[in-house]
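Morning!

As promised:
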Amino acid sequence: MTRRLMEGSEAIVEAAIAAGCRFFTGYPMTPFTEVLEHFSKRLPEVGGVCINAESELEAIGMTWGAAATGARAATGSVGQGLSLMQESIAEMALARVPIVVFNMSRGQSDYFQATRGGGHGDYRTIVLAPMDVSEAVELTQLAFHLADRWRNPVLVYGDFLIAHTSEAIDVQPIDFGPLPDKDWGIDGSTSGTGRSRMITSIGIGKAHSPTSGIIGHFEGIAPHLAAMQAAEARVETGFVDDADHIVVAFGTAGKFVRYVVGKMRADGVRVGYVRPITLWPFPEDAVARASEGKRAVMVFENSAGQLIDDVKISVLGRAPVIPIGGISTDASGFGVGDMYDAEVIRGRIEAVLAGQEVTS
Amino acid sequence: MTDAIVERPIVPTEHRPDRAAHEVGHKVAPLLLTEQSHFCPGCGEPIAARTILENLVELGVAGQSVAVLGIGCYTAMASSFDIDTVQALHGRAPSVATGVKRMKPDSIVFTLQGDGDMVNEGLQEVLHTAARGESVTAILLNNGVFGETGGHMTATSVLGQRTKNTIDGRDAEYHGYPIRIADLIAQLDGVAYVARGSVHSPGAIAKTKKMVHKALQMQVERKGFSFVEILTMCPTGWFIPTIEGPQYMDDTLGQVHTMGELEVRG
């Protein structure tokens, strides 16, 4: 084991390459830019391709083509750039093209974009939200596995701190188990054989093997989404069983909450935490169980209130759901503000415990 | 629905018109899984497609060919082409083709886009892909109208052209001017071959087929981006009798988007 100090962006790129990613394309934008830089240096060294896309629209399109051949392919940006990609992400979900998209977001205000999507039609993307660089290395590799397992786009939701914090990391390939063959991959080799293949978002079939068309294509979506939802929810919980209060948080915010709750427990305060690792599927069952019999469920997120919707849907009135987060950013708008401070977070939790209203 | 479909004979492009006439009903284009289609009578798109299919076979690259189709009437060809196919989003075929080609460099990748798809929705895509010198062949089926929506103005509609949303004819002062896309692409350093053909006459079809041949040959030789714009009749979207399609094209679109080779790199 050789650990090396590297920033999150580099660690994510090394993890993607360890997972077999051989195509990346992107458009620079802070704090995603260093992911693109590292891919542009590293992919040619391993026989891959990194294209400096002229726009996010073209980046997601190129990724579509690369993934359609069966290659492991990825793109990324920040939430703003992902807004431009939404049409293609939606259609790729409908066309069952597996890709990985990195959102090195500016805070947590892209929660709705990540979990609901801004595209059209009935689709979902699996969303993995690491809390730090080490977990990002694991979840990046998992993202490629899940994309191939489900033939569905998978999002990795990072942020400025994950992209730019340096940790001592040893990136090793992780074996998540066998996957089905990619016999659907397009390479021209079945052209002219009467068995040519098709990748389509609208259910067009080749005349040699007529499909059920757009009706059957769309009717197949719901069972596909239900199967992903049933299988892939991931969550970490701590000190939940005997807690009076629960705090829910994800990503960087989740790492802070985890630390603060640990400290409060050491001081004898009966508080626990739930950290969703997948934002979709949302770990509804875990949040519901954790909220049972609790005096309140707090939600700490760096946004005006987005995660809290899913918490409320999961808690279903079992306990009051109280927001203790808010928008907290730096002068550049990169989503790193004063709220990311253990004492601040502890103060907000204690205010709820004391029955005071939290103002962010 | 199916009863209304008439199987239409295919006229080979390699023969003179008089000889071709004798061949009617005896030959079909290669790489077709079915001769049935839902194209309107008088549509030029199947003829343009035939020039591609025949060239893929004649160049011996059919067994490594990949089609990337945009969104328009021609998207329906996806089911009849015996070619590995990716259906792209409206405007995005050049980027999708780029991803395919970069991961499968030995494949022969061509795109099919209409003027609405390429010159309206995805103009930057084709320009950037051309400038990058991607080794793909882009085919534009230009009929100067959104055929699939029922005849609306596109960025290549010519001045005076009547469409459903330029009912008194395209007026430069109000609607602006048509884009000559092949001329734009020909200015870029990454291109190996740029030409504009047409399918409004047997002679034009034969010339166009040679253009498509050269374009695909450039890709085989990895010389850069190749592009053929093909003017296609759309009597339905032009609101004219079917039989007047070729003449109308020659008199209108053909006067603005003129046929010829614009760039040939050795």
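The first strand of chain A starts at residue 4 and ends at 7.

Hope this helps with the figure draft.
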